[in-house]
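= Tokenised fold =
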Amino acid sequence: MIRNIYFSTFALICITISSCYGDSIQKINHGEETKLIKLTTTKGNIVIKLFADKAPETVKNFLNYTENGNYNGTIFHRVIENFMIQGGGLLPDMSEFASNAPVVNESNNDLSNKKGTIAMARTSDPHSATSQFFINLKDNDFLDKKNAPDGYGYCVFGEVVEGIEIVEEIGTVSTGNKNGHSDVPQDTITIETVEIIKE
């Protein structure tokens, strides 16, 4: 089953935020537990800071896929303008790579789904996240644990520190249906490599 963000009980709320990205980014001191990873995509590079101190199992899970090269050659397969971009599980032919066991939902870490944060995608089961992730295009506080009807919400485990303009560009591409999937970019956006650039 494809790991999609589950919306049956969520309303898609569009929140107006400052056009200045720096004003919306979360100011959190993560000390020595932070790691930087770089997504090299066909649209440009995105650098993400991972919060191992706030979401240790989620970050460990993400790094496992990264170190094994599973994300290399995958695509951003779901894009919803003014909401989020999703990737980390499908190949250009829309087939899904074999994922590992689901990871526990660590959404109780007090991190909010603000613009530029990265969180785990899942099904209606709160603890079903495997490899797929999404990057928020705006403040999506309704996805946070404290606002979630299911009591869990979506676990934030990092934030974009370079390349937010690339994320925003991806968020505006034309989308359609492909092989039974909706909101698929009409022109394939490939995640060529994902690598750790700072331990």
About this structure: Helices lie at 21-24, 56-67, 164-170. Confidence is low (pLDDT under 50) at residues 6-32. The first strand starts at residue 34 and ends at 41. Residues 56-67 form the longest helix (12 residues).
